[in-house]
Amino acid sequence: MIDASVLQHLAHTLEQRKGADPATSYVAKLYGKGLDAILKKLGEEATETILAAKEGDKLQIVRETADLWFHCLVMLAYLDLGPLDVLAELKRREGISGIDEKASRAPD
Amino acid sequence: MIDASVLQHLAHTLEQRKGADPATSYVAKLYGKGLDAILKKLGEEATETILAAKEGDKLQIVRETADLWFHCLVMLAYLDLGPLDVLAELKRREGISGIDEKASRAPD
Amino acid sequence: MIDASVLQHLAHTLEQRKGADPATSYVAKLYGKGLDAILKKLGEEATETILAAKEGDKLQIVRETADLWFHCLVMLAYLDLGPLDVLAELKRREGISGIDEKASRAPD
Amino acid sequence: MIDASVLQHLAHTLEQRKGADPATSYVAKLYGKGLDAILKKLGEEATETILAAKEGDKLQIVRETADLWFHCLVMLAYLDLGPLDVLAELKRREGISGIDEKASRAPD
After folding, report:
1. How buried is residue B101: exposed, middle or buried, by Cβ count under 10 Å (0-12/13-18/19+)?
2. Is the confidence at residue B35, as pLDDT, over 90?
3. Engineered SS bond to A17: which of A27, C3, C15, D38, CB 3.0-4.6 Å?
């Protein structure tokens, strides 16, 4: 069954990559390049998600969104955070004032 | 307990917002503005996530990543997709060749 | 006649806005909010340029690109730089190895 | 002397690249990949400009802004537009209501 435990599983693996030789994995190499390189990838994947959504190819949209979330997980791991922090924040907002909580915040 | 069921719960609520009066909710208003408005928000939140990560304020990083994921969910719902599609894609990659599957794909 | 002197003219005006009351102008207000607010606008305008280009409406493409360049000028002014620095860099590359100089640099 | 004629000179060269063999130049190769590839580069360079500005290294800021403007020129050329269109739009705004014209438009 597909459920969201994959996020925690990925986070666990990303944690283990931290000590790895950059030559052995994509993620270890990205860690080695540092925060800016990770954030560039995050920006790239956001652009690609936007382009896929405009194009309307559902398979591509899912693929690019997965790339975007994956690189968010890499960024979070690099900064000693993880998906549970993000999910807790989403749950907190839902608990307080429903899905539309953002609307009640000061405009950004 | 915090787990990833919040994603599916949010997706369910986002689905229900589809028929709602734009005046009644942030999401209904965003749907009403159309795909480009949703994608602009997605791009904005990606930029804000990048800025928060550079700044290094963990609370803000989590908040902006939550905003980014939330607007991904809005985009997916608008296009009749959902978080399970993205999680299935992440799980598929993990199953095939591990977390570093992306590295083995043709460079994009 | 339309020529690129408008960039320098804008830069001059942007410089003068630096001491202005935030209540009196859009740019003075943006300066008052600080670098992150300026960079968020830059990111937003980049996304809007991309969306306009995908949409194919030429009037909108020109308008969004103008917004993007304008906010680049605001960012440059805020950091005590200006369009001549950017134009000099473009000219330097052209002088060295032609328009395709970027291709000869190490991949980023 | 450094002036903005470099933009028109670049535009002229970009126009000439249109028929070129993709193997012979960076730009011809990018044209060959199509609009999405050009827009991905535009998004990447926007992210890199933002990261450079946060980092505060002036040389890098100028370099990344030049990359961003250059890829805007490539996008414009690909769509049969050019820098004069953007400069005319900036001049038009300045003429109508000064540099802060954007503030008077409906919020986007």
Report:
1. middle
2. yes
3. A27
